[in-house]
Prior knowledge:
alpha+beta, 3-stranded antiparallel beta sheet, elongated
Amino acid sequence: MTYISKDLSRGKDEVLKSNITEDQFNEIKDSLDYLDTCMYEIDYCLMLRDNIYDFLRNVENDETDHDLVFVSLNRLFMNIMNSYYAWIEHHEKNYKSVFKPIASQYYDSHFEYRLAYNLRTYTTHHSLAITSTTTHLDSGLKTINIELEKLLDKKSGIQNSFRKELESIVSDNGIQTIDAYPFIITFFKIFEKLQGDIWNSIYKNIAAKIELLQDYTQNDRMIRDTYILTEDESDYLRIGAKIAIMLNKWKKIIVPDYLMNYLDS
């Protein structure tokens, strides 16, 4: 079976290429699937960013109802952990060869990354992470407490190696709680660097897939509403729109201004 590419934008019906082979069609399909995966990858990042922002803003907005504060903080904190978990799962499934060595390096180098990695398991399978809030009368500042003793519970689900690390922190330094607010800010900074390293690693593949598709979409390097169709037009792939959506999505990887304040802090 052979295929053709057509420009169908704005009422056109122009054949751009003909005699496209089955192998070429499958290569085009694989490239479109790759771009879909990349767009989902960006979406996972954007969701995690927004959940981080929602949590930080909630902490900064002073509420008077303690019960509502506690519920909201844990809900928003769990949103971060759940979206972080989904982000990890997506990368381990689709970018394992790229993700594993980069993530391992960050895991080994950053306590906050190790803490987040284990909290995602703890909040999913064991309990709420935030157990109390404390308002300091002298400064008026509020701390959002994660109790380390609860994480040390053998049923908490955290990694044994990390449990030993927490035990040392508690016994050697006398630290009983971690303030979730500065922890999430530091985690956010680490996450953005890690995400940037991943994007740098896959960018050439994305560009190569787009370049391959563009060879079938136009003759003048303009993005048109183009399709790959069977000769009888019973089956098709829409490729021009997919390129446009991917390029627009890529613009969104830039950290928005409302989050840059935390990265610069």
